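Could you help me review a protein record that somebody else here produced? This is what I was given.
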Amino acid sequence: MQIDKNKVEQLKRKPFKVNGAEVDYQRNLIRIDDVDNAVQPMVMELMVLLSSHKGKTLLKSDIVAHLWPDTIVGPDSLANTMA
């Protein structure tokens, strides 16, 4: 499945909910039980990408290409981002 960049951009515009958590891309925050949790920008990019394709399977190669466009990355880059 190809990444729908329009869906990704829509979620970046305003906070949205995922499984009871509120995700605020603009502030790099995930609010869980009224507690704001700061996350790294790359983690937020991944969160928005996966949330915009909820219920769909994305290829690792497509995820890596979206997160690191025009960049050669090592095989552990995605795993390190998710850790």
Q: What stands out?
A: Residues 61 and 78 are 10 Å apart (CA to CA). The chain has a mean pLDDT of 91. The domain at 5-68 is CATH 1.10.10.10 (Arc Repressor Mutant, subunit A).
